[in-house]
Amino acid sequence: MATAAVAALGWLVTSASPPGALWPLPRNYTNGNQTPTVLASPSFFQLSSQCKTLSDAAVRYGKLTFPHDLGGTAAGTGITGLKVTVADDSEGYPQLGTDESYSLTVPTEGVAELTAKTVYGALRGMETFSQLVMLDFDGERYYAYGAPWQIDDAPRFPWRGLMIDTSRHFQTLASIRSVIDSLPYAKLNVLHWHMSDSQSFPMESKTHPKLWEGSWSAQERYLQSDIADIIEYARARGVRTMVEFDMPGHAGSWCKGYPEVCPSTSCTQPLNLASNATWDLITALLGEMTGANGGKALFEDHYIHLGGDEVNTNCWTKSSEISKWLSDRGMTADQGYAYFVKRAAEIALSQKRRPVQWVEVFDHFGTQLDNRTIVHVWKDKGTLAKVVAAGYDALLDNSPGSDSWYLDHLSVAWEAVYGNEPCSEISEQSQCDRVMGGQGEMWGETADMSDEEQTVWPRLGAIAERLWTPRDKTAQALASGDAHNRIQAFRCMLNRRGIRAAPVNNKDARSAPPGPGGCYVQ
């Protein structure tokens, strides 16, 4: 970071009325110390394309950038607009590797300029610009702090996400939309939807309509049209949506509608690998998601999560039918587990989706896995080094330890989350390149729409900067205290935008403020 930038940002976050600071830090930038007026107007955003994604984003960011009514169109000198130019205005579904880079020039007078290769890069740049504009309440004017700016930015990792769990507690559509709204504020680009688990199966299936008999109630369900609306809502904000159906464990809720896919009514999981009904259901269900059944894909993402974790095979060995099936094939129960996760992955691959599976599949079966499998490392981070050394792509959100990215671990402070460097135990850059990124995991046992946002934020912001910003800059920001100052300002910005982010300095996440105080010191 340039010395001038350090000085400017330090002043901004330690003054009596700190206006804000960029989060996450851009890859490269320079800036000055001027505060030119920003002249808000209905035509402030000047778009090179009128494609719907950009046009809608301009309306959205107009409200985010200029939230206060100053009583008319501003006049005078200053920054008069933001010219947004994209090389490709395609509005196709974003995929892993979609270019999110952008360049932003903010002068002290005239038109600011944002250029990007894709509309999704332009969305990231519009977010950055919105964070540079604040209101001078005394002077009743908008201004850009630290101008002039020259920012050339791109993410360090292509996969930066949040997992939500709609099985342990149902999440309303309004709640999910609010979560999606918050993700671009930290330049996150993946919503991992843990759709079902042992407790409930809330989603409509056309091929197996009794599956949602496993929902908590008849009112706690999602129509496929609801899901399609959520996916499009996320896409318009540059967020991919990946669905997860955890199997063969964590699938007891499937048995309520289709008991034949389970070992017995009293011992419901893992799913019955010996029954053709199980494989017919899985093939058809995934086919609805991918379009392999002949219809339109519900989830367009190139990745689908198949779970595979925490499989206890006791229900198989207690079943005479399954025990005989295993014996006839010369398999132990553990070999049956390997057979199941391999066959499930092959179904996904045959439907042109890369399977993501939890790290247990690697722990048990190592290089027997198809090398197109993405290994999702939630256990000790040391496993990550083994996974990538074996030639597999991986995602990180390790649960054990004081730096966990499991957001339901309420005692893990934001500093520890921020300090969790994905490649800290990987010595070769070629192997670090196999780390696609990571996620915050918001398991739903103790979270529903009443406390989801304040559990997720602001700690998810720490994950977001670690995954967006170059490694050397995050290390410096944490050591210098700059990250602490900026995440406090970021949390206040989230609050202003209606996101119920908890105080930064809580001992435990989602705790109430300890007493009266301003946003920037709690």
What distance lies between the first and last C-alpha atoms, to the nearest angstrom? 26 Å
Question: What general outline do the C-alpha atoms trace?
Answer: elongated
Provide the CATH topology of the largest domain. Answer: TIM Barrel
CATH architecture of the largest domain: Alpha-Beta Barrel
Instruction: Evaluate the radius of gyration.
Output: 24 Å
Query: How many domains make up the coordinates?
Result: 2
- Name the structural class: alpha/beta
Determine the number of helices (DSSP H or I, runs of at least 4 residues): 17
Structure description:
It is a single chain. This protein is α/β, with parallel strands linked by helices. It has two domains: 3-153, Chitobiase, domain 2 (2-Layer Sandwich), CATH 3.30.379.10; 159-470, TIM Barrel (Alpha-Beta Barrel), CATH 3.20.20. The protein is 33% helix and 18% strand. It has 17 helices and 17 strands. It has helices at residues 3-14, 52-65, 119-132, 173-182, 224-235, 276-290, 314-318, 320-328, 333-350, 360-365, 382-389, 414-418, 429-432, 452-456, 459-468, 471-480, 482-496, and strands at 28-34, 37-38, 45-47, 79-88, 102-106, 110-118, 133-136, 141-144, 147-153, 159-165, 190-196, 240-245, 303-305, 354-358, 374-377, 393-396, 435-442. It has an eight-stranded parallel beta sheet. Strand 14, helix 10 and strand 15 form a beta-alpha-beta unit. Helix 1 crosses helix 17 and helix 4 (173-182) runs parallel beside helix 5. The longest helix has 18 residues, at 333-350. It is elongated, with a radius of gyration of 24 Å. The two termini are 26 Å apart. 50% of the residues are buried.
